[in-house]
Amino acid sequence: MSPTKLKTLAFLVAIPLGFALAVWLGREAATYAKPDKFIRFHQGIAPESLFYPPFSTLENLALARWSPGRTLVIIGGNSILNGVGQSDKNLWSRRLQEELGERYVVVNLSFRGALPCEAGALVAESLIKRGLHVVLISNTAPSTVGRVAGGAYGYLYYNGLAHDRLMYHPAREADLAAWEETATPSIREQQAELRRAAALDARFHFQALWHHIGYRYGFTTWTQVTRDHFWRPRDKIADDGTDARPLAERFRDQLEAELAITRAFSAGLAESTEPTSWRTYAPHARLTGELIDAMFPPAVRARTIMLLNQNAPYYRSRLTLRERTRDDFVFATYEQLWRDRGIDCHTVGANFTDEDFADRTHLAPSGGRKLALLVADYVRQLTPP
Amino acid sequence: MIFNTYAFALFAAVFFPGYWLIRSPCLRSWWLLGGCAVFHGHFAGPAGVLPIAALALLTYVCALSRLRALCYAAIAACIAALVFYKYTHFLSRELLATLAPGLSAQATTLSASWLPDAPPLALSFFTFEFVHYLVDVAGGGAPIRSPKTFALFAIYFPSLVAGPIKRYQDFTAALPRSLAGVELTEVAAGAQRVALGFFKKILLADNLTVALAFYEKDFSNLSAPEAWLFLAALSARILLDFSGYTDIALGLSQMLGLRLPENFNYPYAATGLRDFWARWHISLSSWIRDYVYIPLGGNRHGPLRRSSNLIIAFALCGLWHGGAGHFMVWGLWHGLGLVVQATYRKGLSSLGARLGDVLDRFAVLSWLLTLVFVAFGWLLFFYPAAQAWAMAIKLLSFR
Amino acid sequence: MNSSRLRQSGALALRVFLGLAVGGFAHYLLYRLFLPVQPFIYVAF
Description:
The complex is a heterotrimer of chains A (385), B (399) and C (45). Chain A has helices spanning 3-32, 55-64, 79-82, 92-100, 120-129, 154-162, 170-182, 185-204, 206-216, 255-267, 282-295, 298-301, 313-316, 321-340, 365-382, and strands at residues 71-75, 104-108, 134-140, 270-274, 277-280, 304-309, 344-348. Chain A has 385 residues and is of the alpha/beta class. Chain A has one domain. Chain A has a 5-stranded parallel beta sheet with strand order 2-1-3-6-7, with helices on both faces. In chain A, strands 4-5 form a two-stranded antiparallel sheet. The termini of chain A are far apart. The model of chain A has no long low-confidence stretch (mean pLDDT 94). Chain B has 3 domains: 6-180, no CATH class; 184-255; 267-397, no CATH class. Chain B has helices at 6-21, 25-65, 68-99, 101-114, 123-138, 147-155, 168-180, 184-216, 224-255, 273-277, 282-293, 302-320, 325-347, 349-361, 363-382, 385-397. In chain B, helix 12 (302-320) packs antiparallel against helix 13 (325-347), helix 13 (325-347) crosses helix 14 and helix 13 packs antiparallel against helix 15. Chain C has 45 residues and is mostly helical. Chain C has one helix spanning 2-32. Chain C is elongated and about 55 Å long. The chains are: A alpha/beta (385), B mainly alpha (399), C mainly alpha (45). Chains in contact: A-B, A-C, B-C. At the A-C interface, helix 1, helix 8 and helix 9 of A face helix 1 of C.
């Protein structure tokens, strides 16, 4: 064989070998890769900075401190449970762990902007499927259920599905198929790409390997969040969450816009019968119920505590009497609606003070402490010794 | 299904091994055609495929007749389709709005009801290849007889998305060799080039694109060095993006055993504008030269005519990039630059001659001048003229 | 003789390394395509 041909052959044979080596490394990484000293997903290790922790990372985090005989308390949900308004030292989930004690392992897998059925909820589903004793804490606004696919964290659903981590729940698949049929062609193609990515990842494990490399050795993609040092490994990027500003500086920004949001929380969900008497707007309540059924498999519902977060009293006190009664009615009604579907649901924040809120919706450290006490109680009720 | 998608990765994983494993040239050609059709169908969708299929059929039939009148009619149809899909908005909103505002409003409403949201993808590339084919056949060239070969020329997937603009003589000569068998050295060289293209695009150009989008919002507050760095990044980004794409296209084609024409030859090393256009988007600049500049008279009728031909050719070159005023201004910028480069030695008499001598002697000066001229041109290429002007003023004020 | 063989072995090792790098890069690309990728500028034309 001529030297040229030999070199060509060596190069061509080495390509699949290099790929196979990376696949093997990825397979290994999927079993151990996770952020160190993890407290929560701060911006440096979250999709805001193009770091999309794969399903395996979330599972590794959930199982890192767990041991047989202990109950795993997985926190899903959005920025409120992620602890925006609290520094990592004062994070409410730390308080929750202290309150619950050694029998429980608390892991905060919430993300900013996540829906109650996304991310943490899917990890809880996967671990319940594996037979672990799990409690899921999630949160939302009264009528927001959303869908596991289509949002910023939808990749985790396809990722979990392709890795065979999720429960068989045909209602969810039927709902997603129906939703996709009504979506625009570009959204359909986007979803198809996510499915292709997940299917390829299930075989080649590229997410686990390259996220691990990005976390440990260096990142290759410029992002606005990390603009001054985008190449730095993400383990060098600290949690930038801070405690709420002093009370005198809170709430005043964009008062009208925040008030409008506070009003909108219940505006479309109830119809007036008399001046201060309300009944549920039936189509919306029906849709919410259907989505709860579709997005939460029955086995997960039985292990879920759903928190409906009230807005800060600073804004609620500025509502008219009529708006306040509607607000109270909607929270109570939807709390019952979630319960009727088998999910333990509680409204939180209604009796908190302005001091407890960092802004309209997020909690300050004192609010976080109150939340931890409440949730610890709910968890103990759901998991009697 | 463009190159940076999972759909393409899956397509390539099936298509390429199939192409290499099939031994019969005939079967291979069908496999290639099938792959091209799947690629085009997925890439453009039915609304994008149908107009191209209609134009391709017209082009094929008219060229086959070898009747000049029919060829010219087909050329007119291709150009009309391009103008209709790509320039109707520009003509009704920008040009007509200046001349007859009332008529512009009517035309805009009317065109909105006719036109799809976006023109068929890669329409400009298709049109230029079809026009080249028809002009050459009308000029006595042999048409492609086999519909399969013509279809392959029309929708050959490596060059379908954004060129290089092929010449049918080269393509039809290279195709049988590719169908007969692919050398391992070609596959290896192609794979290397594809990797290089993705490196340029994904690791370099994409990072620059996102960073530039972030900093351009605050351009007026950048310091002078930062603003010049921005300009350098803008220039690097378009080169890396487009030459990255071209490397992928050429590499993929090479992996099929077929070499496509080169599009770049270190353009930022050019020491003059003429030199730059001999190195930048070569398949477009040579098309413009052969099918616009030379038919207009080229440099055959004296300096004045030559200058006007250059300006017309480059204004059209600018407009080819899209129906927007700033593209035309960018074309005019380069056209005028070329006119100045061609005439300043005589036009400025002794001063011009001296300046020419200095630039000849110090090539680094010519290089720097060319680079800065091209870089300022990219401001016109990417931004509306008024914004580009403000950015240029800021850059030149060094504040 | 020896130095020519050494050169050839070096060239061969380089090609193997290059092949491994391209294979690894293909794996990286699968990850990178998941993050937002920018459309090719000239696709719009």
